[in-house]
Design a protein that fits this description.
Number of strands: 0
Function: Plays a role in the regulation of phosphate uptake.
Distance between the termini: 40 Å
Subcellular location: Cytoplasm
CATH class: Mainly Alpha
Organism: [Clostridium] fimetarium
Helix content: over 70%
Order of helices and strands: HHHHHHH
CATH architecture: Up-down Bundle
Number of domains: 1
Main location: cytoplasm
Largest sheet: none
Number of helices: 7
Protein name: Phosphate-specific transport system accessory protein PhoU
Structural class: mainly alpha
């Protein structure tokens, strides 16, 4: 019986990594669509939503099967609980990538009112955070998970810079208002993706240590 349980735990790990890898690819495509004004790529990101949702349901069902049909010990229960939390954040990252892509489609044909330096930097930072959080789970790497949590401050600071830049552009010319609002929403969605990557990293720490403290305690 334990052999079957271990096989199912391995399948859970494999499914989580597969979903995490897909999420990372979707974010990367979203960034490329933003920088290159690639509307077809933005549409492709949106089409990935259904696949992400299916993967979430598959993993959720496997977790419930492990909890209800088997008798997990404390360490197993911790791992399964962390997996359930992680897939929720992964699914939301997929949703927010689709939201960004919807905005990009609405902006089709418009020249950008500003260089995307800080938005691109923010997008790249959140992409790295997602990949690192998944890598930390695979490697059971506590220090790597802590790095992801610390990176969230970088993303938050970049969002503040973007917000002030866009407010200045609106003050200079009110005609900038519509696109400035769209770009601000894109920045906000990337900030949320960073928050979800942070959540994933915290659940990775929980899966390793069995503790889920606040960020100050985790990173001290």
């Amino acid at each position: 019986m334990r052999d079957i349980f271990n096989e199912q735990l391995e399948q859970l790990n494999s499914d989580l990594v597969e979903m995490g890898t897909l999420i990372g690819q979707v974010i990367r495509m979203t960034v490329e669509a933003l920088v290159d004004k690639d509307i077809e790529k933005a549409k492709k990101v949106i089409r990935f939503e259904d696949q992400i949702d299916r993967q979430e349901k598959t993993i959720e069902n496997l977790c419930l099967k492990l909890l209800l049909q088997q008798q997990p010990v404390a360490s197993d229960f911790t791992q399964i609980s962390a997996a359930l939390k992680m897939i929720t954040d992964m699914e939301r990252i997929g949703d927010q990538s689709a939201d960004i892509s919807q905005i990009l489609i609405g902006m089709a044909g418009q020249p950008y009112i500003k260089k995307l330096d800080h938005i691109q930097a923010m997008a790249n930072e959140t992409t790295r955070m997602v990949f690192k959080s998944i890598d930390a789970y695979v490697k059971k790497d506590l220090e790597l998970a802590k790095e992801v949590i610390l990176q969230d401050d970088i993303v938050d600071n970049l969002f503040l810079i973007i917000k002030h830049e866009l407010i200045d552009l609106i003050n200079e010319n009110t005609e900038n208002g519509e696109q400035a609002t769209d770009l601000l929403m894109i920045g906000k969605y990337f900030e949320r993706i960073g928050d979800h990557a942070t959540n994933i990293a915290e659940w990775v720490i929980f899966s390793i240590t069995g503790k889920h403290d606040d960020i100050d305690k985790i990173t001290e």
